[in-house]
Amino acid sequence: MKKFLQSEWMSRLIDALLPVFATLAALIIGAVMLLFLGVNPIVAYKALWDGAFGSGNAFAETLVKATPLLLVGLGICISFRGDVINIGGEGQMIIGGILATWIGLTFTGLPGWLAITLALLAGFLGGAIWGGIPGYLKAYFNVNEILSTVMMNAIAVQIMNFMMRGPMLDPIQAAKASKIPQTARLIEAFRLARWSPTRLHLGVLIAVILAILVYILLWRTTLGYRIRAVGMNPLASRYAGIKVPRYIVMSLLLSGAFAGLAGAIQVYGVNYRMITDGSASGFTGNAGFNGIVAALFGQLHPLWSIPASILFGALLVGANQMQRVVQVPSALITALNGLVVVFVVSSEFLRRRRQRQRLAHAKMDDAPPDKTSQPAEASA
Amino acid sequence: MDFTIILQAGIASGTVLLFATLGELFSERAGVLNLGVEGMMLIGAMTAFSTTIATGNPWIGVLAAMLFAGLISQIHAFIVITLQADQVVSGLSLTFLGTGISLVLGEGLSKAGTVSLLPNFSIPLLTLIPIIGKIFFTDQSILVYIGYLLVPLSWYYINHTRPGLHLRAIGEYPSAADALGISVFRQRYFYVFVGGMLAGLAGATISLAVSPGWFSELTTGGQGWIAIGLVIFAQWDPIRAAVGAYAFGALRRLILDIQGPVLLLGFANPFYYNPYLGFFLQMLPYLFTVVVLVIGSREAMRKRIGAPAALGNPYVRGERGK
Predict the structure, then answer these.
(1) Residue A29: pLDDT above 80?
(2) Which CATH number fits domain B3-303: 1.10.3470, 3.30.70, 1.10.10, 3.40.50?
(3) Is B289 on the interface with A (CB under 8 A)?
(4) Within the 91-120 window of chain B, which residues sit less than 8 Å (CB to CB) from chain A?
(5) Which residues neighbour A332 within 8 Å (Cβ) at sequence distance 6 or greater?
(6) Fold exhibited by the domain A65-325
(7) Averaged over A221-238, what is the pLDDT?
């Protein structure tokens, strides 16, 4: 049995399953919290499951929720591999959303496919700008990107509030006294195709295709190779002739671009307009943060990020159902997300330790039998 | 518009940033980056408010806030010190965790009404000093005065005491500190705990003194992140941290108060309930943080000083290098 547990195959399987254990551990602690709140965890988790996977429509909602997580997560895969921490997904989504909406509301005469393409590109560009600024500040002014991206989020929120109440205010709302801060609706030709009667839209497919493209970018292109090289060892990269600052900017820029695209797709696939409740999460649904969680859970691999985003999409959709059925604040899922990451990073420790053990075993197996010397530990 | 009143209120709101910044400073000086400040502050604000409602005694609220936030910080400590995991990722997850827990436990708390707050008082004699007396020593919360004491104490502790020397050692060169018999692990746990307690105190300062109440995640509104930025601006020095924190507090107040009066210095006030300019005003603290970061980072490069050398690195006993 011990031999079996130590076999290569088995340890690889355990490594692959670690995130699953991490999720289970988080759910168990979540259950304790539910008990503490006086709620039967089985009933609550049943509601969570039904809300996420209980019907075709529920699953469609899960996928809709997973789409921005995956897109933001793809950007995170790029930036974290470049050792650049992008916490600015929220702001990048907002700026991407604003630019994309502007395209759709301004060029109403264009054919649908062209307008949508332009709008998605505008979203991509908007996010790239909003990510590129902190990237530039990090590369050339040594400004900590974690903090600058967080600040850029807050700035983007105020820009959104300004645009929704000012230049981009829906003319219908402008005429009313209520003045709900939102833009006009996109015309029907400009909306991403839907799999009716659900809200499942074409953006889901776009995100999956992009996941494959990001995989190719990271492991099959020079750009991706250099981003990863800079992430692993900036000094060695510099000596190898890579212009390190340029690739720092590039990884934040690309990371922001994917978040911006997520914002654009939220507008063109789900809401058909931008509306603000004064906070970032009103538009993004916290996807800018949860995308980070999803990408980390997917071990910063673009393809593993697909199931990871579905998992977190399911948690988010299910949380709403749970809130309805057992009256638990859906913010519980925010805590659960934090716990999942806690357990994922903790399990890294186990993996490292087992890796060391494997190496040690391998060394012992390879070493010629030497009966005279005792292992150092034996004497201690 | 009376600027001394704005500055007076600014000092109070700067006290929030001061506690959080000092807490993070201690943690980072010990070599542990904790990005969970925002989450711990929310925990602190929620705990202080709810405990005070339950017990009627704001001091118990403050104590509970510091303890709970300190306890939450130990999750981070365990992950990054014992399990040697990535400090950035763990800190982020602490923010999620803290936000989630405080929102769940604080559900319905916003309608809980008013609580007995911490006392405000003036310092006799000192309040007579023109302008300064009015700004710093008149009708301030007791926490503000605690903040005044904490700054020189922290400075003295870090720079002129034996435990302070140990603190610097474990952040700069942990293996040397270890060789001298300083327990790097235990000390790091301790300073992360201190950081958590001060973040909790910062949260309690919001909900029991500066802007009493519980407004879910808007209670802190990103101040935890600004505090982490201020640590860089402060170059890990408590005195500079205080300057930064109070300046930011004053800025926050100014932005709120400048929208009130009809006339500004005798002219029509362009900010007078102007919703459009209001958004740009609200952007300012964050824009300023970016500017402050640029200044701080450039200065660090020029003077070749900077973060504690071991900041962000787990200490592994017997491993070569740092």
Answers:
(1) yes
(2) 1.10.3470
(3) yes
(4) 92-101, 103-104, 107
(5) A30, A33, A34, A319, A322, B100, B104
(6) ABC transporter involved in vitamin B12 uptake, BtuC (1.10.3470)
(7) 94
